[in-house]
Amino acid sequence: MFARLEVIEIVIFFLGIGFFLVLAFGVWKAIQRGKNLAWLLPFFAVALAMMGFPAYQSIKIGDIEFSLQQSLAASEQNPASDSAKAAVQRDLNALGSVSSRDLEGRLLVARANVVLGDKKKGLAQVDSILKVDPTHREALQLKRRFELVVPHP
To answer: CB under 8 Å to 82, separation ≥6 — which residues?
Structure first.
């Protein structure tokens, strides 16, 4: 669930849960004392936004990665197409940085860099994936496919 999120986004999520629980306790106490609850309602919106933000970020990143996958497929089918490469560059720019824990996202970035002709960046991404998971099948295939280094026997 949290693989595609940065640490700060995870912290915001759990702080939102804590804030929500504190507010729920406040509502319970206010009901017991017969007090007005209207002043607590805006705070619930803040707590819900804190909990929803990481999910929104995850969906947004997923959409951009899907678009990048489509652009990569088009570019790999027609390597001479400048418009396909431009689409890959656009989607790569939209994606921005990828969480160090998101191996699949980093693999997409590596493939995009190779398609765009930057094999050094592609190699750096593949190597960073293989440091985390030396048996990552797709990273090993990409490393061999584009002959970034001599394959290991």
So the answer is: none
